[in-house]
Design a protein that fits this description.
CATH architecture of the largest domain: Alpha-Beta Complex
Radius of gyration: 25 Å
Shape: elongated
Largest sheet: 6 strands, mixed
Strand content: 15-25%
Structural class: alpha+beta
CATH class of the largest domain: Alpha Beta
């Protein structure tokens, strides 16, 4: 029996491995590239090569050095559209305005060293023919090259650069509360921080920002983009977006980014405590412990744990949060991937006292990743009734890897499964009580029918799951009063609560 937090979850931050030893001499043209004084080519090579070694070794989805590098060099067109890169048989051609600037012999598919060199040679060759490329610094190239390469893997893996050295000095610094990666001429939102201007808007992970305050992303350096998003508290920032191929515009008022992930509200009449977990960050478990102590002192009769709009965060925190509610000796999570150390299991720990309440877990289509895991574990062990719509469907884990330049690569390197063996990847957690499309008037007439037979969902094929999603479509429901009312009615009726719990054997 395993009773410790596995290394995969305990420490998601690792250093990018040092580049593998040279297997052959560098190409003859490499000395010419190293002689370029406008870019720190040698230092850039160390970062690109180390990143390539990391990704090819540990990525959950196998990918070759040649695929990564070719995606990188193709992304030069995102700096300047007149630059183009093509493969012509065993040659890689760098072009400007249709004219061949350089021609290289394509390295072997698994040769990270020479593909990294070729990527940098392409950048050096293109710079004299592009004013935009000449303005790009090393960090700008890293953002473009590495995010293009990581985009080859999935939509979750991404690179973030080191903190910029020269952001604009502000008296009352504020922002909108997003993390993002650069994809071509867009900034793609990868995370929305809780209780921030972005969280209180309809922005969503995956939205692509094409302009900030009327300035195209393609014309902004990394630092310029950051400085456009930042500003004095209370000032507005105007974003031009694309969502599902359609243009959108949004104005957000900048605010201080000091969010607490756990908040609560206690209803004296029903004796129910609503606990809002906005994200699973370093402070989530400590905040949840304090809140549960408060629930005990107030004599709470039940808990409503609101996970709507919670896009996840640290899986370690979600595992520890679930463990608070579970008796000793239960399998909580299993992880698996290609890299060494990804086969892990965590079993619930012994504890002097644990909170025992009827629990309603509120979820929606934005409930993702760690939040899906938390809801799924309590659902499977009959420790809570899940109310809302099917969740986002992310069952993979990213590791946080330091790069030689001081940046970070967030790489999808493992998948997780719930105690039943089910992975939410692609289809999410299915609710016990579906509220898709419901209004308060619907709830006044009758509560939704409880779906307690979830074994077909956990073990069914794709066709079955698509039909189930058609019957209960995923929807964003954050702050919708319907789920709160359904939860209140379920938790204040012990017999109905018991009938709504999952009837599902883990054997």
């Amino acid at each position: 029996m395993i009773r410790r937090l596995p290394a995969l979850l305990l420490c998601l931050t690792a250093a990018v491995p040092a580049a593998a030893g040279e297997q052959h001499p560098a190409p003859v043209w490499w000395e010419t590239v190293l002689g370029n004084t406008r870019l720190p080519v040698s230092r850039m090579y160390d970062t690109l090569n180390a990143a390539c070694e990391l990704i090819t070794e540990k990525s959950l989805i196998p990918v070759s050095a040649s695929d990564l590098a070719f995606e990188s060099v193709k992304s030069l067109s995102s700096i300047d559209g007149k630059i183009n890169v093509v493969k012509d048989g065993k040659r890689v051609l760098i072009l400007a305005d249709g004219r061949i600037l350089k021609s290289f012999t394509a390295p072997a598919d698994d040769d990270c060293a020479d593909w990294s060199r070729l990527t940098l040679a392409a950048a050096v060759a293109a710079r004299p023919y592009s004013g935009k490329a000449q303005k790009a610094d090393a960090e700008e190239f890293f953002n473009i090259f590495l995010n293009a390469a990581l985009g080859k893997i999935d939509s979750y893996s991404h690179y973030t650069g080191a903190d910029p050295a020269d952001p604009v000095a502000l008296k009352n610094p504020a922002g909108v509360g997003i993390n993002y990666r650069r994809i071509g001429k867009y900034l793609e939102i990868t995370e929305i921080l809780p209780d921030t201007p972005a969280a209180h808007s309809d922005l969503t992970v995956g939205d692509r920002i094409s302009a900030i305050n009327g300035r195209d992303i393609a014309d902004l350096s990394r630092i310029e983009a950051l400085n456009q998003l930042r500003g004095e508290e209370g000032t507005e920032v105007f974003l031009t977006l694309r969502r599902d191929g359609k243009p959108l515009s949004r104005a957000l008022k900048r605010g201080r980014i000091t969010a607490s992930p756990v908040t609560y509200l206690f209803d004296e009449k029903s004796r129910l405590m609503t606990i809002r977990i906005a994200a699973f960050s370093q402070k989530t478990v400590s905040g949840l412990r304090v809140t549960l102590e408060k629930a005990e002192k107030l004599g709470a009769a039940g808990l409503i744990i609101d996970l709507r709009g919670n896009t996840g965060g640290l899986l370690k925190q979600a595992v520890l949060a679930a463990d608070l509610f579970l008796p000793e000796g239960l399998s909580v999570i299993k992880t698996n991937g290609r890299a060494n150390g990804t086969r892990q299991e965590y079993t619930s720990t012994a504890k002097k006292k644990r909170p025992v309440y009827p629990i309603a877990l509120l979820v929606d289509s934005k409930t993702a990743s760690s939040a899906e895991f938390f809801a799924g574990v309590l659902q499977e062990y009959r420790h809570g009734v899940v109310i809302g719509t099917p969740t986002f469907g992310k069952g993979v884990i990213q590791s946080d890897n330091d790069t030689p330049d001081g940046g970070h690569i967030y790489l999808t390197w493992a998948r997780y499964t719930l105690p039943s063996g089910y992975s939410p990847q692609g289809y999410g957690i299915y609710p016990n009580l579906c509220t898709s499309g419901m209004t308060l008037s619907n709830v006044a007439d009758a509560l939704p029918v409880s779906q307690t037979q979830l074994k077909p969902w956990r073990q069914g094929d794709d066709s079955f799951k698509r039909k189930a999603l058609a019957a209960c479509p995923p929807q964003p429901r954050k702050d919708n009063p319907v789920e709160d009312e359904v939860a209140k009615q379920i938790l204040t009726d012990p017999e109905r609560y018991e009938r709504s719990l999952t009837y599902f054997s883990l054997d």
